[in-house]
Amino acid sequence: MTEEPSTVDSENLSVQNSEISSHQRASSQGKRLFGLLIDLVLIILILNTLDSFLRQEHWDLKQQTRSWLDLTWFYGGVMLFLVFRDLSQNGSPGKRILGMCLRKIENLHERVPKDRLFKRNLSLFILPWEAWEIFKDPYGRRLGDRLAGTVVIDNPNAMRPMRRLLLSNLLFFGFFVIALGLQQPNMRKTSAFQVAYEVVKQDSRYLELQAAGLKLEEPELHLDFREDVEDSRVRFRVNQDEKSQIFEVVLTLVKEPSPHWEVKGLEFQTLNQDEKD
């Protein structure tokens, strides 16, 4: 008779635990690492987009004189993002896309305070060790999780998978559209383009086409920054009825006494409509 209540209590406790585990379970190790990969790809896209926005005139030559100190802002930005990426209450973008969230280990219904989220990601400076910890722990808790008292679980209130997939595709497609939009302006800022453009503008064949009201279109850059290895080429096209006039300026990079582009020649050809490449 004395053991009956304890048996009932243990049964009730096991039922509660089974209900919690059925609704809230730790995210798998593979899912965790995939979320981290999404975060890394996202921050690289953001930093590359900012770099494209901030490019100045003759950026192609300035790249030749860059030192490792010039790259500190890039790597520093990656590390800052990794440290602060979880300060949103629902976790980093990678976790949201995959339907995960952060919770206190002592109470899976409570969100994690920001100070504990910050502490959690400081250990990412030893990233290879943290990846090993995720696979070693049965609940995928890395060293940062144990220090901050957190656990990553599948969010029971996450958006539907199709909606999350759609939003993530829109996000990455947005970066693709921005990159396409910045391609032409950044190309025109290069010293190679400007040198080649001045050469073509002074060519008598182009002056005749310009007098007829035609303009240079569809510029293309094929740059090789290795000195005396392969020529760089800047191509311009002038479309005229069923023909295309191609102006191709051949350049080589000279690094002494200071980096600059040297013109090796100008090639010209006429293509019919069926010969266009």
In short:
By secondary structure, the chain is of the alpha+beta class. It has two domains: about 15-185, no CATH class; about 190-275, Nuclear Transport Factor 2, Chain: A, CATH 3.10.450. Helix content is about 50%, strand content about 20%.
> Considering DSSP H and I runs of 4 or more, what fraction of the residues is helical?
40-55%
Shape: elongated
How much of the residues is beta strand, in percent? 15-25%
Task: Enumerate the spans where pLDDT stays under 50 for 5 or more consecutive residues.
Answer: 1-22
Radius of gyration: 29 Å
Largest sheet: 4 strands, antiparallel
User: What count of structural domains?
Assistant: 2
Distance between the termini: 92 Å
**What is the mean predicted local confidence, pLDDT?**
80
Extended strand count? 6
Report on the structure:
The protein has two domains: 16-183, no CATH class; 190-275, Nuclear Transport Factor 2, Chain: A, CATH 3.10.450. Helices cover 50% and strands 18% of the residues. It has helices at 4-23, 29-53, 59-62, 72-84, 93-97, 114-121, 127-136, 143-148, 161-188, 191-201, 204-211; strands at 100-104, 150-154, 217-222, 232-240, 243-254, 260-272. Strands 3-4-5-6 form a four-stranded antiparallel β-sheet, covered by helices on one side. β4 and β5 (243-254) form a beta hairpin. α2 packs across α4 (72-84) and α2 (29-53) packs parallel to α9 (161-188). The relative contact order is 0.10. The model is unreliable at 1-22 (pLDDT under 50).
Layout of SSEs?
Layout: H1 4-23, H2 29-53, H3 59-62, H4 72-84, H5 93-97, E1 100-104, H6 114-121, H7 127-136, H8 143-148, E2 150-154, H9 161-188, H10 191-201, H11 204-211, E3 217-222, E4 232-240, E5 243-254, E6 260-272
Helix pairs in contact: 2-4, 2-9
